[in-house]
């Protein structure tokens, strides 16, 4: 196996483990897909039936845009779930990694008309930079792909109404950190709203100009801000290595 593919497998397996560590996985469901380096239409994805905490570099399955296996593997693939991932990978060449979860906080926020509100510094990154896709049922119909891509537009984060959240990254590290920051922001929003409903008083929200300024600082890497994951990812891998390095096998 080429070294570039093996390194990609290790990175993707780490991403699965980190999502599991945050308790953002959904048993054997949800997916994180990664384009095989040097290809346009080959991808790595989790074996159907394995928990995220069990994923290893060698267990990942190589597939085509339709979710069909391209390499010998004893594992099956949930091809229907690749309807979402396949459409985005093919439409967005810089979307090397596509991450989709059903976390409680993201689902709760997805059902709110405005989605994620700029109520915390975590949330400012996503101010006017989150897409929305209305729920159409279980995403197994191929004709939904065009609407998914159209709704995503140029964003790297999309709330799938009543369903979950989707993040796109040039690397697994970027996709993971966007998920992490979105999840933190969603939890904070729900906590603030619960407190306000309980009589704590109105929630203060910064003005639009300040929110836009903060968002641009994140996305344009002002000051010492780097692309999401560039600084955090090596530290997270060191943490994984101390706890359980089996993801590399």
Automatic annotation (TrEMBL):
Q: Where does the Class II aldolase/adducin N-terminal domain start and stop, copy by copy?
A: 10-190
InterPro entries registered for this protein in UniProt: Aldolase-II_Adducin_sf, Aldolase_II/adducin_N, Aldolase_II/adducin_N_sf
Q: Which GO terms describe its molecular function?
A: actin filament binding
Q: Which domain of life does the protein's organism represent?
A: Bacteria
Q: Which Gene3D superfamilies match?
A: Class II aldolase/adducin N-terminal domain
GO CC annotations, alphabetized? cytoskeleton
The entry sums up its family as follows: Belongs to the aldolase class II family.
UniProt-recorded name of the protein: Class II aldolase
Q: Which organism is it from?
A: Achromobacter aloeverae
Lineage of the source organism? Bacteria, Pseudomonadati, Pseudomonadota, Betaproteobacteria, Burkholderiales
């Amino acid at each position: 196996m080429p070294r570039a593919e093996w390194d990609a497998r290790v990175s993707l397996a780490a991403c699965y483990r980190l999502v599991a560590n945050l308790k953002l996985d959904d048993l054997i469901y949800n997916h994180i897909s990664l384009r095989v380096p040097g290809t346009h239409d080959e991808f790595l994805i989790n074996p159907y039936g394995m928990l995220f905490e069990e994923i290893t570099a060698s267990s990942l399955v190589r597939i085509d845009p339709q979710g069909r296996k391209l390499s010998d593997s004893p594992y099956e693939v949930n091809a229907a779930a690749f309807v979402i991932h396949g459409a985005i990978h093919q439409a967005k060449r810089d979307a090397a990694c596509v991450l989709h979860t059903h976390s409680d906080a993201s689902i709760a926020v997805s059902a709110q008309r405005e989605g994620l509100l700029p109520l915390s510094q975590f949330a400012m990154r996503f101010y006017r930079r989150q897409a929305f896709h209305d729920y159409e049922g279980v995403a197994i119909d191929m004709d939904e792909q065009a609407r998914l891509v159209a709704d995503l537009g140029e964003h790297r984060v999309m709330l799938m109404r009543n369903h979950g959240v989707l993040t796109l990254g040039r690397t697994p590290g970027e996709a993971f950190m966007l998920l992490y920051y979105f999840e933190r922001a969603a939890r904070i929003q729900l906590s603030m709203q619960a407190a306000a409903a309980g009589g704590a008083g109105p929630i203060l929200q910064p003005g639009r100009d300040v929110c836009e300024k903060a968002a641009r600082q994140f996305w344009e890497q002002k000051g010492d801000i780097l692309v999401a994951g560039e600084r955090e990812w090596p530290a997270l891998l060191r943490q994984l290595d101390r706890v359980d390095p089996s993801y590399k096998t």
